[in-house]
Amino acid sequence: MGGNQTWITEVTLLGFQVDPALELFLFGLFSLFYTITLLGNGVILGLVCLDSRLHTPMYFFLSHLAILDMSYASNNVPKMLANLVSQKRTISFVPCIMQTFLYLAFAHVECLILVVMSYGRYVAICHPLHYTVIMSWKVCTVLAISSWVFSFLLALVHVVLILRLPFCGPHEINHFFCEILSVLKLACADTRLNQVVIVAACVFILVGPLCLVLGSYFRILLAILSIRSGEGRRKAFSTCSSHLCVVGLFFGSAIIMYMAPKSRHPEEQQKILSLFYSLFNPMLNPLIYSLRSSEVKGSLRRVLRKERPT
């Protein structure tokens, strides 16, 4: 390392480099999306807690997904909104690394929770008589805790590998938050080990879970096609379609972002892709579930009428 290099104490998040008028429009639009995200996921979480009819494995994991979506958006969006209306767009290096850590951890947890939810649907449709035994509360609790613990440990591995690097510039991140690939560009050392670990983690936490989800739904599709009743088929498809929408949005944007050749996705396009899993997906998840789930809509009506389930 040269003696004239300075160490980074804070960095500038360039964000969306657009006209001031457009920045104000984006601030209003993203603020609306963020509010919808908090309200929608808060309503889902509240309904699951208040209505005993929703105390089932499916809604147990749905409540975890709601917590994840609120946490995920709150980790990135407030700083992005502040930068849209402020001339000072700096962030200290330690909070920047913490933002990277939480973003990775929440993303990993969501991958695993979506896999568990798909397995729960597989058991419900393909093995309905054994559902209560296979998806017991003990099993659900172990799966949920394991998903959170493993995900935070994996995110910690990334952060430890980042902190071993010397950071001496540049002092700018061409993103709206401290995304891991953008942070690595600040290092003045070889980051090949970090890149290898990121690719390996993507294979393990994105491709692997996606294959498990697709495998579960292939078995579910075969089971649905064997149902003679048209009403039974419609109900089964309705039960699974909302989860497939969430899976497609989340895994699709993440795989394009981290596994597609980077030359095909300039930095501005990467920011748009990041918006999908940082803001759009957390906003859409409760809307998809509430619109597709008769149980959630029924629970909401009961709560609004101040009725208690019998």
Question: How widely separated are the two ends?
Answer: 70 Å
Number of strands: 3
User: What general form does the structure show?
Assistant: globular
Helix content: over 70%
Task: Tell me the layout of helices and strands.
Layout: E1 10-13, H1 20-50, H2 57-84, E2 90-92, H3 93-126, H4 131-134, H5 137-163, E3 172-173, H6 180-184, H7 192-225, H8 230-259, H9 267-292, H10 294-304
Parallel strand pairs: 1-3
Antiparallel strand pairs: 1-2
Helix pairs in contact: 1-2, 1-9, 1-10, 2-3, 2-9, 3-5, 3-7, 3-8, 5-7, 7-8, 8-9, 9-10
Describe this structure in words.
By secondary structure, this protein is an all-alpha fold. The protein has 10 helices and 3 strands, in the order E-H-H-E-H-H-H-E-H-H-H-H-H. It has helices at residues 20-50, 57-84, 93-126, 131-134, 137-163, 180-184, 192-225, 230-259, 267-292, 294-304; strands spanning 10-13, 90-92, 172-173. Strands 2-1-3 form a 3-stranded mixed β-sheet. Helix 3 (93-126) runs antiparallel to helix 8 and helix 9 (267-292) crosses helix 10 (294-304). The longest helix is centred in the middle third of the chain and has 34 residues, at 93-126. The radius of gyration is 21 Å and the shape is globular. The relative contact order is 0.15. The model is unreliable at 1-6 (pLDDT under 50).
Key terms:
310 residues; mainly alpha; three-stranded mixed sheet; 10 helices; globular
In short:
The chain has helices spanning 20-50, 57-84, 93-126, 131-134, 137-163, 180-184, 192-225, 230-259, 267-292, 294-304, and strands at 10-13, 90-92, 172-173. With 310 residues, the chain is mostly helical. The protein has a 3-stranded mixed beta sheet.
